[in-house]
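Please, structure for the following, as tokens.
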Amino acid sequence: MRDSVTCIFVHGWAMNSSVWDECVAQLPDWINVVVVDLPGHGTMVNVPVRSLDDYVQALVPLAHQPVIWVGWSLGGLAVLRLAELYPQRVAAAMLIATNPCFVKQQDWSCAVDADVFKQFAEYLTENQKKTINRFLALQVKGLSDMKQSLKQLQDSLALRGQASLPALLSGLDILLTTDFRQTLKRLDCPLHWLLGVNDSLVPKALAKVLVQEYAQKDVVLLKEASHAPFISHSENFINQLIAIAKQHRKRAF
């Protein structure tokens, strides 16, 4: 379609591409939608993954010209790494519930304790299904429609199946060790952020830090949202994404 824009959607830890289904169905027809399962997840469950760059190598073939990348949580880290390595393929990035550094550091308080991810790794080897359910519940914590959002996450996960244990452990290690704070300062492409006040994994304080210390110009902090704002506040997500797509419509293929 003439003057169309391509948006590629990258899911988060333990999930798969079906998590985007309800949102992308509401997008206008001039937005070309591409959803992808990361290695070790969904339809790619048998594809091995050991590092963040393995995700990037799976994403690169999807775009040969600049497109808009939408990354959620762990998927946002993959998008940031792709923008760093292949800037020519990124027109803009929308980062949902993503933290450039998910784990607290001495000079970085707007994150969570490393024990959060370490405990999930320990629990996974004991009972994968129970651990995933616990993680899903954490993502919707604090929402007024918690049960409905949780069910949508559970249904999406069931549609294409759980990720492999090695992929889940690799993903947790990526969340534990990745620090893209300096990368943010080097990236030339526009970055757009969607965060939630009630997010248990990405503290709301990040929004202020992104604006004041990293000169980010489009940081949306939703008052009642948690870690999956594109589900609980789909209208806000869709409106923000459409606005981003309109800015880049003439430059995208």
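The radius of gyration is 17 Å. The first strand starts at residue 5 and ends at 10.
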